[in-house]
Amino acid sequence: MAKTSAPHTLVIVESPAKARTIEKYLGKGYTVESSIGHIRDLPKSAADIPEKYKGKAWARLGLDIENDFQPLYVVAPEKRAHVAKLRKMASEADEIILATDDDREGESIAWHLFQELRPKVPVKRMVFHEITKEAIQAAIAAPRQIDSNLVEAQETRRALDRLYGYEVSPVLWKKVAPKLSAGRVQSVATRMLVERERERMRFVSATWWDLLVTGKTAEGATFPARLTDVAGQKLALGRDFDPLTGRLKDGVVARLLGEAEARALAEGLSGQPLTVTSAEEKPFTQRPYPPFITSTLQQEGSRKLGFAATRTMRAAQRLYEQGYITYMRTDSTNLSSEAVSAARTQVAQMYGPSYLSPQPRVYAKKSKNAQEAHEAIRPAGSSFRTPDSLRGELSGDEWRLYDLIWKRTVACQMADARGRSLRVRLGGKAKTGEDVQLSASGRTIDFPGFLRAYVEGSDDPSAALEDRETPLPPLREGERVLADSVKPEGHETQPPARYTEASLVQSLEGAGIGRPSTYASILGTIQDRGYATKKGQALVPSWTAFATSALLEHHFSSLVDYDFTAKMEEDLDDIAGGRAQRVPYLRRFYLGDHGEGMALRPLIDSKMGEIDARGIATIVVPKLEGSGIEVRVGRYGPYMERSGEKANLPEDLAPDELTAEKAEEIMSRPTGDRVIGTDEATGHPVVARAGRYGPYVTLGAENPPIRSASLFPTDDLGTLTLGRALKLLSLPRLVGTSEGEEVWAQNGKYGPYLKRGSDSRSLTSHEELFNVGIQEAEALFLQPRYGKGRAAAAPPLRSFEYPGRANIILKSGRFGPYLTDGEKNATLRKGEDEGTLTAERALEILEERGKEPQKKPGKSGARTGAARTGAAKKSGARTPARKGAASTSAASAAPAKKAPAKKAPAKKAPAKAAAKAKAPAKATFTWADLRPHLGVLSDPERRLVTATREQGRKVEDIAPELGLEVAKAKGMALQASKKLNQAARGG
DNA sequence: CAGTGAGCGAGCTTCCGCTTGACTT
Fold first, then answer.
1. How far is the CA of A301 from the C1' of B12 (A)?
2. Region Disordered: what ranges (predicted)?
3. Which of A15, A162, A92, A47 is nearest to A590 (CA)?
4. Within 10 Å of residue A659's Cβ, how many Cβ atoms?
5. Bases on strand B under 7 Å from any protein CB
6. Alpha-carbon distance A381 to A324, whole Å?
7. What value does the mean pLDDT take over residues A916-941?
8. pLDDT value at position A156?
């Protein structure tokens, strides 16, 4: 620690760009470094959990529930190098100042830094809200200590989010679909989208008509006016209709104009004189909008520039890093005095002193739960660069965003806009005799004030239209004008608009949900999880979002309350203020306390059994009520079902577009099936179809078909002939009988194979299904099961050699590439590329997380992989010998085979072990074993089986006796055989 | 969700909030 140089102080802030700026202000004796956000967090997944805690039940959560929810903090691997650097810098400093943001998260970062760096020199905490020389020097002069209550509040927030997310998500995996997620923020955001879509789905539109009249004064000036009353009755407008019925709302007394009436009235009013019955002029003023915060920047970026939230933030980040704007993740509309004076100077220069607001404007806190650690988003510095002066310096997106920020900032110190609004009523009489009233309104801007610099964009075009200046000619009461032209106009009521990125962020912010740093990523999360897709600007919730939201609303309603976060924030404020404690709060939330609190864990435990997955997957669509059609989310996406008939829902069909007619159309849509002919023997159609498992043909057009068969790889769905289809449908084929068992040739999901009892052998080609004879089949059954096939199928991808150590080889498995040295195996993870893997890295991976393969039940003791491999080979080699011996003597074959098979499960006395023990369960049973289980079969099944097994008859011969088609009887025989084997296995 | 037999190394998915590069294509 002994240093020859002058004493110096290490200041740590959160952002590198901020560090650079501050260093300039602090000068000699100070080094400023950044933490780059949080440096530690709860472990994200198993890979982050230290070995020491791996076995703990609570490690997955990172919170030791039984020990006061003690958090387990880890430095993420990608942060380790940086933390090491900070630690080194800390050891070389004489003093450390933790200058992270002045909010809950910032306080926590300071505390984590303190914990992780373990400094041996004095440590101070300082805060500032604007990056100006004065503010920073003032902050340096007034240091404080870390506020442990505030840190506790952050830890509570963190723990609650973890418990919510990591406990509720698995409920969704089980009840809806894997990889889904739930969370305090995203689940409410999703719910908002779903509820809006539900309104749209229930919406019934209505049509109404009115008249647009062009009035003409004596001087020849024209102006637009709209019909408001007919024969003393108010005209019905869009807002008078009930969105659920499309009819006028209860209690509304209004005249509803139909098209014919509107046209007749237009005709009758055309050219008629009108009298101004009233003309009212009112002055108005409009104040400028507050300067940008993250949410409003994203909203205006979207409305005015058409940027998605991420695009706005990317451009803002670059502007910030290059020193053009202040920090872009903020919830404060506050401007430093430096900024206010810079803006005012610029207004005076560019627009003249009359455009300046008389007093500097101060904007109040805008949103719920704002933490106000930073300034508003504004051009940086004590004199703003004008957008024009930066044209050559900034890229397109950056310049346009800077321009927007500059205008908004400057505008906020400008004078109010002033103007007059004029509202005129007119009366008249149609030629047909009805009295009518009309109204016209106008808006005149007398002094634009801030509007010279900035007009806020709008999500609603009709509102924007209203905002536009619409001057009216000066009209006085009693004045006569002419209905110069009269145009009937039809209108349709519109369902509530879908959320856009911007409006969703606005709503979330309004409810105090989410933070400036997360708005953009929330949008990403709900899209990544498949809860929403973008259709133009609109966010359209998916059917999965409906299912997820329904589950949460019905079973965890308080978790998706719009007020949940607001309530949490109140509680966190209490903790930050020392009025409440973290542990009791978390206990109530997670475990419950004598019937009080959320009690999440017990709730989940009781709900797991209660929640009906099928019910949750069935989505209520009001417009399909009574149609018998149900919408359901299945493993392969959303589909409709009506009495067994199914149809996929097209991917691009938004939920609100699914009307009864549309549903019927999709249900009756040809599924791409092609009828290729009729089976003469049965009279049923033969249909070629494309299925989930690939192309196949069916006998019968209905669902499910009578029979079906996959096409061979050499077949083509488009050119398949009837003869070929029927040939495929003739499978499975009975090859003959061997060892008292039928041998069937069958096409399965692993390809063509032969089956004898519960034994099977793969065939090398599909055509063999039709050709293979009983001798060849028997020869195949003499071969070991997978002997040559497997040895050839698994060549190592790569091999790494090490002196004094077994080789490690890279193999391809069904879970992807993995490493093995015969002892341990380790699957490659994301980012570990099989091509670029080095020998060192391979060794590292295997030693770090290699696992011994799980012991198979029924195998004794812990054997090494190498030993087991050897044993397997040996037993593989032995099998044909044994079978060969058996085949020479049919009588002795059965017991020889049966003995090991039956003994194994018998040894495993506990029911659990037996149920898990797959290997012995696959044993071959003799007819004597199976016979006692005939009771599990239906009558025809039993007759089929006994006739084939005991009388050696063929299925083809028995089928007519049972009144069955041969193919169906074959299927039934197979099915029966399966049932019997299962019964014998299960005991 | 629609027909289907076996055997091979399991292990992970997920939250919210702070913050940037380091990667590859």
1. 38
2. 846-912
3. A162
4. 14
5. 1-21
6. 8
7. 52
8. 98
Beta carbons within 10 angstroms of residue A965's beta carbon: 18
Please give the mean pLDDT across all residues of chain A: 84
**Distance set, CA A977 to CA A597, A732, A952 (Å):** 55, 14, 15
- Measured between alpha carbons, how far is A376 from A373 in angstroms, rounded to an integer? 10
Q: A9-39+76-146: what CATH class?
A: alpha beta
Helix (H, G, I), strand (E, B) or coil at A234: strand
- The fold of the A206-287+420-493 domain, in CATH, is Topoisomerase I; domain 3 (2.70.20)
**Would you state the pLDDT for residue A982?**
58
A637 conformational bin, left if phi > 0, alpha if psi -120 to 50, beta if neither: left
Q: Which residue is nearest to nucleotide B3 (CA to C1')?
A: A708
What are the pLDDT digits (tens) for A818-853?
A: 778 877 777 776 666 677 777 887 887 777 777 776
Q: Is the CB of A658 under 7 A from strand B?
A: no
For A281-326, how does the pLDDT look when each residue is reduced to its tens digit (9 = 90+)? 999 999 999 999 999 999 999 999 999 999 999 999 999 999 999 9
How many helical (H) and strand (E) elements, i.e. helices and strands, does chain A have?
A: 33, 31
Per-residue pLDDT reduced to its tens digit, A409-465: 999 999 999 999 999 999 999 999 999 999 999 988 899 999 999 877 755 544 444
Judge whether residue A746 contacts strand B, using its CB and a 7 Å cut-off. yes
A425 touches strand B (CB under 7 A): no
Peptide bond into A853 cis (omega under 30): no
Cβ neighbours of residue A901 closer than 8 Å, sequence gap 6 or more: A920, A923, A924
Of all residues in chain A, the percent with pLDDT exceeding 90 is 60
Spans of all domains in chain A: 9-39+76-146, 156-203+502-619, 206-287+420-493, 294-415, 733-782, 798-829, 927-984
**CA A865, CA A448: separation in Å to the nearest integer?**
83
Report which residue is nearest nucleotide B11 when distances run from CA to C1': A827
Q: Which CATH number fits domain A156-203+502-619: 3.40.50.11810, 2.30.110.10, 1.10.460.10, 3.30.390.10?
A: 1.10.460.10
Beta strands in A180-293 (DSSP E): 207-216, 222-230, 233-234, 273-286
**Residue A750 Cβ under 7 A from any strand B atom:** yes
**CA-closest candidate to residue A421, choices A393, A441, A395:** A441
Which tokens belong to A718? 């488009």
In this complex, the answer to whether residue A16 has its CB under 7 A from any atom of chain B, a nucleic strand, is yes
Q: Which residues of A81-94 are buried (b: 16+ CB within 10 A; e: fewer)?
A: eebeebeeebeebe
Strands, E assignment, A637-786: 637-642, 645-648, 674-678, 685-691, 694-699, 707-710, 733-738, 741-748, 751-756, 759-762
The pLDDT of residue A816 is: 66
SS (H, E, C) A922-982: CCCCCHHHHHHHHHHCCHHHHHHHHHHHHHCCCHHHHHHHHCCCHHHHHHHHHHHHHHHHH
The topology under which CATH files domain A927-984 is Arc Repressor Mutant, subunit A (1.10.10)
Contacts 24+ apart (CB under 8 A), A258-261: A258/A209, A259/A207, A259/A209, A259/A488, A259/A490, A261/A209
CA–C1' A323–B16 (A): 29
Nearest-CA residue relative to C1' of B8: A813
Kindly report the CATH class assigned to A294-415: mainly alpha
Is the separation of the CB atoms in A401 and A301 below 8 Å?
yes
From residue A826, alpha-carbon distances to A277, A829, A851 in Å are: 87, 9, 6
Task: Flag the least confident range among A124-133, A826-835, A975-984.
Answer: A975-984
- Residues of A forming the active site: 327
Tell me which residue has tokens 């085979």. Answer: A897
As a whole number of angstroms, the distance between CA A299 and CA A776 comes to 73
* Span A958-981, average pLDDT: 57
Question: Does residue A295 reach within 7 angstroms of strand B, measured from its CB?
Answer: no
